[in-house]
Every structure is written in C-alpha cells, then in structure tokens.
Design goal:
Layout (H helix, E strand, L loop, with lengths): L1 H27 L7 E4 L10 E4 L1 H8 L4 E4 L9 E7 L2 E6 L2
Antiparallel strand pairs: 1-2, 3-5, 4-5
C-alpha cells in the first residue's frame, strides 16, 4: 500500500509541476487575465483531462501544498478527500 501511495504522490507532483510551468508561461506573456488551461492533478499517470481556472483560483489552490485540482470524479478516496467542488474541477486534499 505504501508504494501505491508514493506512486500516486509522485504522479500528482509531476502534474503540479506542469501546471506551475503553464502558469509561469502565462505570466511571462502577460496573460494573467486569461483562464489557465491546466492538466488534471490526479494520481493517475494516464489521465489526459484538462481543467481551467483563473490565476487567483490557482494561487489560492497553491496556498496549501497538500491540495490538488482534479477533474470531477478523479479523487482517490483512500489517500485524499474532496474539500471543494468548483466549476469544472474539484479540490482534493491529501489525508494524513
């Protein structure tokens, strides 16, 4: 079970890094008023779902390093819980 949790965490970290780079590029090209087109940050390495949110929503999400944005229904209940449902995505928080 521990190896599975580590794999899920690694997958989420990779997707988070991709999204942070997307946000940085948007800032570089002065697109802060545009919606961010991000990848689902679920633990499934094969996931190809996209989610959109504003820059302020993304910053709020990132204010807690245990939170991730996932496509609705992509939460993994034994390692995380949905803490907020938003238009087009859910916010999950890692359980400890």
């Amino acid at each position: 079970m521990r190896a599975r949790e580590e794999r899920i965490g690694l997958n989420e970290a990779v997707f988070r890094e991709v999204n942070e780079r997307i946000e940085n590029l948007a800032e570089t090209f002065d697109l802060s008023s545009e919606m961010l087109d991000l990848v689902c940050e679920c633990g499934n390495a094969d996931c190809v779902q996209r989610i959109t949110m504003t820059h302020p929503e993304y910053e709020e999400l990132r204010s807690d390093s245990h939170q991730f944005a996932v496509y609705p229904g992509h939460e993994i209940p034994d390692v995380e819980r949905v803490v907020d449902r938003r238009k087009g995505y859910d916010v999950v928080k890692k359980t400890e």
